[in-house]
Amino acid sequence: MTSIFKSRNIVIGLILLAILFPFITQNEYFLHVMTLAFIWMIAVYGLNLLAGYTGYLSLAHAGFFAIGAYAFGLLTVKAGLGFWSAFIIAPMITTAVGFLIGLIALRTKEHFFAIYTLCVGYIIYLLVDKWEGLTGGVRGLIGIPAPSNIGPVNLSTPLAQYYFVFAILLLVILVIYRLIHSLTGRTFIAIRNSEDLALSLGISTTKNKLLSFVLSTFFAGIAGTLYACFIRFIGPDIGNINITFDLLTYMIVGGIGTLSGPIVGTLLIVWLSQNLQFLQDYRMLIFGPLLTLMVIFSPGGISGLFSQWYAKRNLKKSAKFTKAEEQV
């Protein structure tokens, strides 16, 4: 019997709920929050591909998110490029930067890799914050264009933007799903489980780690581009290390190395944050212990917890059924 709590089934259920969400609520603020949550999910999927499936924790993810956002903002506001041209080029710029950084970063391993990427992320933040002639510094960039129409389809309304971002999220989930179930995805998992064993089997770990890192930055660039055209104003804070820790929280709470984890964790934390805005100054006092308890008692996150519970339930049922047959 197929478990209803398998990642694929959870994802399908949440996708159906997302499609129906605008019909359930007519509140534009809720649509705004959900659209923003979709953007964070795309970024978390990129982080999860590298950390969850390949076993390398990048703490520069917010930096690449910021590169995507600023690349789009600069191409449209200062270079005068059209929306769709900038929309395609911005993630490519992020990917190119990610490739160059990955060539150096992946010479390190484990906590050294995390420390190196932490430094890279901070350098990116400083460049965005201090290079006023290019980025505007603390003033940021304003006047970023909203999504242009696609033929007769008008993307200027909150509902249209909701489905536009949602469609891109679905595409990202499909790509991730096909990737992790391919030979390349199994190679990533082999590296995560034991890099030395993967090397002994003839797997080019350097090449595959670089591929995972570059794909991770590409998804971060897409998320940053969507954020820029959705919010239409960006400042250096989007490259702050706090954003990386938020994305890590979404991933770990939902379930690191699972297909449904980025969706479950992001939805839970984003909506919990919205309902606890009066405790915004104490959010780390709330989420810190929650994250610690999750790591200790449920390393697989909420998705893993439900999957384990349902597997144990089926195992008990199977044992009872076998015992009843033996008695007969």
Automatic annotation (TrEMBL):
UniProt subcellular location: Cell membrane
CDD domains, per database record: TM_PBP1_LivM_like
Transmembrane segments: 7-24, 30-50, 57-77, 83-105, 112-128, 162-180, 210-235, 247-272, 284-306
Cited InterPro entries: ABC_transp_permease, LivM-like
Signal peptide: none
A Pfam family of this chain: BPD_transp_2
Keywords: Cell membrane, Membrane, Transmembrane, Transmembrane helix
Membrane topology recorded in Swiss-Prot or TrEMBL: Multi-pass membrane protein
Protein origin, superkingdom: Bacteria
PANTHER family according to UniProt: HIGH-AFFINITY BRANCHED-CHAIN AMINO ACID TRANSPORT PROTEIN BRAE, HIGH-AFFINITY BRANCHED-CHAIN AMINO ACID TRANSPORT SYSTEM PERMEASE
Protein name listed in UniProt: Branched-chain amino acid ABC transporter permease
Taxonomic classification: Bacteria, Bacillati, Bacillota, Bacilli, Bacillales
